[in-house]
Specification:
The chain contains 10 helices and 3 strands; from the N terminus they run H-E-E-E-H-H-H-H-H-H-H-H-H. Strands 1-2-3 form a 3-stranded antiparallel β-sheet. 63% of the residues lie in helices and 5% in strands. With 212 residues, the chain is mostly helical.
Length: 212
Amino acid sequence: MAVYYTPTISRRQGRSREVLSEGSRRANLRADLSACGRTGRQTERSYKVVKTDQCTFLGFVFKGKSIRWSDNSLAEFRRQIRLLTGRSWGVFMNYRFRKLRDYIRGWVGYYGLSEYYRPIPGLDHWLRRRIRMCYWKQWRRCRKRVNELLKLGCSKLQAILKALSRKSYWRLSKTFATQVGMTNQWLKKQGLISIRELWISFHYPNKTRYSS
C-alpha cells in the first residue's frame, strides 16, 4: 500500500510566503510598467509624420508617383562594391566574380523595384573600370602586362607604353590600351555581371536583347 506524505506548513511560514509572493508580484508589475514606458518613449521617437517625398521607408524614397532607392542605400551599395573590387584583396578573379554576382543579384532583386534608371549605366561603367584595375594590379610585372595586352589584341607600342607607365592603377584602368584589350564583352565572358541588364530584365522580363 502506497503512503503519500503531505508536508505541513505552519501559519508563520504561510504568511511569509504570501508576503514574498505579493512582493514579487509588485516587483514584476513595476518592471513591466517601466519596460512599457521605455518602449513607448522609443516608439514616439521612431515615428513622425512627414510628406511622402521626405520619407525614407525600407531603403526607398518616393518622388512624386515613382519610387526610388535612397541615397544611403546607393552609398552602401557603392561601399560594398569597393570592398569586393579592392585591388588589395588577394583572391582569384573567379572567386571575386562569384561574390560580385551574389551581391549584385541580391541588391537588384530588392532595389530593382526602383524606377530610377539614370545612374545605372554609370554604375556599370564604374564597376568595369574597377575590374580592369584589379586585373592590372594582378599583372604585376611589365612583361606580364605586355603579354596579356598583346593576347587581348592591343598594339605592341601601346602595350609597352602602358606597362612602363608609373601612373596609378586607377588612372591606367581608363586608358586606351586597357579598354581595347579588356573590352566589355571580354569582361562578360570572364564572369562579370551587368547591373543594367539585371535592371532591364526586372522591369521588362519579356525583352531578351540588350544594346551595349
